[in-house]
Amino acid sequence: MPRNTTRLRLAGAVAAVLVAAGVATGPAAQASPEQPTLAQLAQRHGRYFGSATDNPELTDTAYTKILGSEFDMITPGNGMKWYATEPQQGVFDWTAGDQIVDLARRNHQRVRAHTLVWHSQLPGWLTSKQWTAAELRAVLKKHITTEVRHYRGKVYSWDVVNEAFNDDGSYRETLWYKTLGPGYIADALRWAHQADPHARLYLNDYNIEATGPKSDAYYALAKDLRARGVPFDGIGFQTHLALQYGYPTTLKENLSRFSGLGLDTALTEVDVRMQLPASDAKLAEQADWYRQLTEACLAVRRCVGITIWDYTDKYSWIPAVFPGEGAALPWDEQLHPKPAYQALREALS
Ligand code: G3I
Asked: Which CATH number is correct for 37-348, 3.30.429.10, 3.20.20.80, 3.40.190.10, 3.10.20.90?
């Protein structure tokens, strides 16, 4: 038997054992002798390395090739949000989310599902009506239960509640908070857990990477939820950083204190934007930030993985929301790796 065939058969046998053990295999986990993928490098540390994606991009085959090979965790950027999944009350549409879950499955990737309870991207029927607390509670329970059941067994985790706090650590005055009070968070976690007891359940937010009032609010809430036995597994640090605001130097100690509560943490939406035009100096600084944040996660045992908020500047959300800013991701608009990509590889090596 030629050596290559033997090697292929061996790899197949190893993959079968890994699949049986629930470990991701396939393109994202197949060894390439020259250069392991980010996912493979992260797996050596018991971590994943993921990317967000969005449905319109999936027709771009050059894009999907890298998406399917370099990462082992995928997050739908929009497809599982309320406006997409329950566009009319009681009418559920899984088209967008299913497309991404199916793609991830074909590529042997896991899915971080995003997101069940948020104040943004809600359908008109939900935001245009005055709800009583009892009505809204029923609407929320039905949405969570139906969506989590639909994806039961197909996703690794859920961002159950997204962006619940203001920067000063006070509760954000959302539809949910104003109508239901802060108890909506524990309720959402309980309903999600009932619908899929194996999904890892997260609270997820931005501007909590450094210690400060907002991350303190999460710490206090997490401690309280743990003490009350509310089912809940982790905190997602979105990690939308900007060169002009400085690196969050307390990231590692902050991740550690949540580990101390017995919680997982994850960097869930990483990007590092800059004021355009990009320059070699800015790209070098950006690379250094990607290196540092990766090292911070690797240094904290329960920081389980890193997801970038899409992998290429071609599909970044930044320019539409922060005019004049961008170049935030490790691959440029032509899908060429930037210094940040190399920095990630080095940090994971
Ligand atoms: O669906 C419409 C489409 O019909 C229309 O033609 C098009 C024209 O602009 O807009 C489309 O909606 C856009 C939607 O993404 C889907 O592409 C919205 O305008 C756009 O605002 C929306 O942006 C998303 C943003 O969340 C909304 O807040 C981004 O793609 C998505 O990456 C971003 O993700 C959030 C996370 O969920 C939470 N954390 C912050 C992060 C970045 O904002």
From this structure: 3.20.20.80
